[in-house]
Amino acid sequence: MRKGKTRSPGRSSVVTLSDVAALAGVSISAVSRTFTSGASAGKETRRRVLAAAQQLGYRPNAIARTLSTRKSRIIAVVVSYLENQFYPSVLEALSQLLQARGYHVLLFIRNESTSKDSETDTFLLEMLQYQVDGIVLASTMMSSELAAHCQESGIPVVLFNRTSKMNQVSSVASDNIEGGRLAARLLLRKGARRIAFIAGLEDSSTSQEREQGLLAELNDNGVQLFGRRVGEYSLEAASRAARGLFDVAPSKRPDAVFVANDHMAFAVLDVLRIELQLQIPEDVQVVAFDNAPQSGWGGYQLTTIEQNVKAMTEATVSILLEQISSEVPTPACHIVTPVTTVLRRTTKS
Amino acid sequence: MRKGKTRSPGRSSVVTLSDVAALAGVSISAVSRTFTSGASAGKETRRRVLAAAQQLGYRPNAIARTLSTRKSRIIAVVVSYLENQFYPSVLEALSQLLQARGYHVLLFIRNESTSKDSETDTFLLEMLQYQVDGIVLASTMMSSELAAHCQESGIPVVLFNRTSKMNQVSSVASDNIEGGRLAARLLLRKGARRIAFIAGLEDSSTSQEREQGLLAELNDNGVQLFGRRVGEYSLEAASRAARGLFDVAPSKRPDAVFVANDHMAFAVLDVLRIELQLQIPEDVQVVAFDNAPQSGWGGYQLTTIEQNVKAMTEATVSILLEQISSEVPTPACHIVTPVTTVLRRTTKS
DNA sequence: GTGAAAGCGCTAACAG
DNA sequence: CTGTTAGCGCTTTCAC
Question: Which of A154, B30, B275, B293 could bridge to B11 as Cys pair (CB 3.0-4.6 Å)?
């Protein structure tokens, strides 16, 4: 191991507290204090320290600070995949907010297709090892088990865009039930009567709630669900689902579909329009969920139920920071953000 | 500050090396060694340590380890925005590779629109403070200056999908010039003679090279560039560029456009088809660059020059890890990955 | 307000 | 192979 004053040249970051202290002719605690907001800083001392620090190009070592304070100012965010543009949007918003408050994002992408269950543990371990101050689980496919694990390790967790059976852990999600109802109401109002649903993953709370809302509203209006398939949140499965529903005799076809998210809806629209030569919205109307960026693009013009990314991400960081700063374990809280329907060309005007 | 053995309950991560050592009845170094690969581990000792660690739920503290070893196993990756799906793809691939090798991704999103120049420094500072082992700059819009800064701080940097005037810093990028030539050749072969170009950001090396290749090939075939606009890598500017080029008398219209990336091309296609009611590829052919995921979707079916994300990301991590592990400063290296044209429906068959 | 000193949890000589 | 020990760079009592 290197000895005290030996410096490997070229590494500017090896300027330490004591170097600055030496140059400024004060103690290291003095230096530490001037770099710690809200500490008893001597006026003249501060000036000299700042000068010395400036001259030396001193940068506080966040790692050392973390070791000492047990606060890393790092938030782990885990997502399952970035293919669905909704998630990059979220990631961007989240990162922005966190950065503005002096936190940093340690990104974990848990690609479902290439990862086994055991990896879940690996992930968790790694997050814990890095002493992250908080975790946001923005992964619809993440097991509730993992959430529980995190929770019990004592570090704040918030479930993003999903909820958990156990109310122990905080969550932020859209009003998916209401969203499902909005979709149903819209479709009904536009004259649809043979309404089908394409689910995401069966065990995703998000998909379940959206379906639940759909069914409730349909039921309230005395109409039955016409068909149902599972799209697993993937392009391929969604395409298959669409074929299953629509590649049949016209008399057996739905006249509308509610797709659990925009991402799947793009695939659905492609098979409907291109493979099956169906007219949208004349032959079939479709409404989905999220309002991902591409939904508004000319190629799709998808009518959808919008999730309020801004509200969701803001709630997420505020809960997280709240829990982080609070000494006592804060009770879990569950935020439900409102949704709105945005009308485009996949429903009749 | 908390005293030695005092534990705040509920925080399982406070189990330390010495706790394990005590339970196992060995020294802390023994414990440390069994958790350090390639260390002289006593067979029986190891067994007992592992048992004790297991029982206590011990997790090595990566922060402490970092402080001691000066290796954080964290790589900073900075991107400018995630709206262009090419970047989420890259991020996912990068994260995958890095994770597999025991590294982690600290994500920085430098949203151009909301950030001032001074923030560049802030970013850099933060990365340095966290003692990141390496940096990948996957941001076309990032100033070369920042790259230089990083470089001089002694930590390995690789420019992703861009190059720098100064050859000091490593880079990984596609063969953009060849890509531009491929686009030109394709368009020429498909009968286009009035070929226009929509650039990204003027000072982006990537856009410059693509244009350069286009011009070179055009020139070799004795044809002049028919028109040129700047799309700034944004949907809005690209739409404007498309209007500028095509919202004119038919006699003055290009019969093909090469767009500097797919992201802009989507906007271009939308104005061409929807606003201007032009037939693609009959009235105008378009080819772009990247082969972003959506390019293959039914709504666009965009002919494009594909960047090999796999090759690019693999090269990136291999350079990075190489430089990290090498004691002496490794000379900068510049990887150029091959591109291929993928034919779809925006060019004639 | 300021300095001395004791850690934070782990690693890496070094001597046995 | 094992234990002892001296740090890594910073924060935070605790006296002065």
Answer: A154
Q: Closest residue by Cα to the C1' atom of nucleotide D13?
A: B1
Q: Which nucleotide is nearest to A5 (CA to C1')?
A: D7
Span CA (B46) to C1' (C5), Å: 35
Listed in order, strand segments (DSSP E) in chain A are: 74-79, 104-109, 134-138, 157-160, 170-174, 195-199, 227-230, 256-259, 285-290, 303-307, 334-337, 339-342
- Could you give the maximum distance between any two Cα atoms of chain A, in Å? 89
Q: Does residue B147 share a domain with residue B34?
A: no
CB-strand contact B29/D, under 7 Å: yes
- CB-nearest partner of A154 from B11, B104, B114: B11
B217 forms bridges with which residues in the sheet? none
Q: Which nucleotide has the shortest C1'-to-CA distance from B68?
A: D8
CATH code for the domain in which residue B41 is found: 1.10.260.40
Residues A332 and A280 in one domain: no
Best mutation site among A7, A71, A82 for testing chain B: the one with the most B CBs within 10 Å?
Answer: A82
**Long-range contacts, stretch B238-242, CB < 8 angstroms, 24+ apart:** B238/B198, B238/B263, B238/B264, B238/B265, B238/B267, B238/B268, B239/B267, B239/B268, B239/B270, B239/B271, B241/B198, B241/B268, B242/B198, B242/B267, B242/B268, B242/B271, B242/B272
Structural domain containing residue A62? 17-68
The verdict on a CB contact (< 8 Å) between B107 and A125 is no
- Pick from B72, B81, B154: which is nearest to A12 by CB? B154
Whether any strand D atom is under 7 angstroms from the Cβ of B131: the reply reads no
- Number of helical (H) and strand (E) elements in chain A, helices listed first: 12, 12
Looking at the fold, whether B158 and B78 belong to one and the same domain comes out as yes
The spacing between the Cα labelled CA in A188 and the C1' in C8, in angstroms, equals 63
Does residue A58 sit at the B interface (CB-CB below 8 Å)?
Answer: no
**Chain B contacts of A11, Cβ < 8 Å?**
153-154
d(CA B326, CA B328): 6
Beta strand residue intervals within chain B, DSSP E: 74-79, 104-109, 134-138, 157-160, 170-174, 195-199, 227-230, 256-259, 285-290, 303-307, 334-337, 339-342
Of residues A82, A88, A129, nearest to B60 (C-beta): A129
Query: Which chain B residue's Cα is nearest to A64?
Result: B67
**Would you give the distance in Å from CA B133 to the centre of its chain?**
17
Answer yes or no: do B105 and A107 touch at CB < 8 A. yes
Length of chain B (residues): 349
Answer yes or no: do B235 and B262 share one domain: yes
* Each residue's pLDDT expressed in tens, for chain A with a length of 349 residues: 433 333 333 444 589 999 999 999 999 999 999 998 776 778 889 999 999 999 998 999 999 999 999 999 999 999 988 999 999 999 999 999 999 999 999 999 987 665 556 666 677 788 888 999 999 998 765 566 666 676 667 889 999 999 887 778 899 999 999 999 999 999 999 999 999 999 999 989 999 999 999 999 999 999 999 999 999 999 999 999 999 999 999 999 999 999 999 999 999 999 999 999 999 999 999 999 999 999 999 999 999 999 999 999 999 999 999 999 887 778 889 999 999 999 999 999 9
- Asked if residue A187 is part of any domain, the answer here is yes
